Amino acid sequence: MPLTKGPQQTGAGDAVSVRLLPGLALDFAARVGRGAYATCLRRDLCFHGFVAVYAMLALAVSLAAGVPAKFAPFSYLGLVSALPRVLLLLVAGAGLWSLGSRSPLRTFRGLLAACFGPHTVAGLLLFASLSVFLGVFTSLKTMLSDMIPFFADPALAHADAWLHGGDPWRYTSALLPAPWTAGLERLYFGFWGILLSGCLLAVLLLPRLREVRAQYVWTFLWMYPVLGNLAAGAVMSAGPVYYEQVTGDPRFSALVQYLAQHSIGREWAAALWNSYVSGAVGVGSGISAFPSLHLANAAMFALLAGRIHQRLGWLAAAFAGVVLFGSVHLGWHYAVDGYFAIAATVLIWKLVGKVLQRASGAAPSR
């Protein structure tokens, strides 16, 4: 039946907007008038406050350790430079989508209102704050070796061998054809890095993920200092690829030789060691193997994907398995680093969910 416009009805273009983005494209001016921007920004003040306190603690640690130059909270602001491209893609996508409506211009205006609405602006500001958070985390990570020597590698290597009946990398190298090592590295670093930023932006910006937004962000904020700073300092280790440098034991020399022949990323290991020796701070700097933050983030991807759709969750869990395999095969971590990281991340996720549930009185989250 064709639409007829009455006193309580919208035009065809408005109806398309309603169908496309219900609750977002309508009444934009009214929401601004009620202080929607201020409301969204106030909602995130606790996250920004956490980052500020974390930064002040890191600064205090750097001063106490006598390495103030290692406090570099803005190391990851390069991530923020990608945001204009994200916004440009949103505008282009809105333009293409609106072409399919009966009133393209009106629909495009509605979509733009949604793209630059209060929720989006607050999400982008929080993304910038979390980029500073990652810089603070990396600063503290690089300071660990100034305060604590690498002492846990032999114990972790022995634990791995005891659990698996031998060093796990020997099993991975037997299972994976050597030419596939380069492809595994691209997944381990490249695709993982895309998911790290992509999942965070999706949680911060997409209306569909608002239910899980607070749980994801709080898990992210607690995971890094608890696992990447406190647990890493308590079990200070360098990983198999640096085992001989920190222990003098050539136990993993065969793995290093294998990677020298088949890996495309050995220069990354050399660059990371050089930054450790020089004390330089930058994106990805700092050496600590236990626990694996690579696996902790991969576990978060799977937890988020599971909230979206069960099949997507299983696919993300399979990717976490690939990351676990890669962390051992490429010599960055002991297998126990990954096991602990996955279990601890799931625990933090559950605890955060329970706290948020009690605070809101909502139904329990998975």
Spell out the key features of this protein:
366 residues, mainly alpha, 17 helices, 71% helix, 0% strand, globular, disordered N terminus
Can you put this structure into words, describing what you see?
This protein is mainly alpha-helical and 366 residues long. Helices cover 71% and strands 0% of the residues. It starts with 11 loop residues before the first helix and ends in a 6-residue tail after the last helix. 40% of the residues are buried. Mean pLDDT is 83; it is low at 1-33.
How far apart are the first and last residues' alpha carbons, in Å? 42 Å
The overall strand count is 0
Outline the low-pLDDT stretches. Answer: 1-33
Report the β-strand fraction as a percent range: under 5%
Please state the average pLDDT score.
Answer: 83
> How would you classify the helix and strand content by structural class?
mainly alpha
Helix content: over 70%
Largest sheet: none
Query: What are the secondary-structure elements, in order, as H or E?
Result: HHHHHHHHHHHHHHHHH
Rg measurement, Å: 24 Å
Q: Give the overall silhouette.
A: globular
Separate helix tally: 17
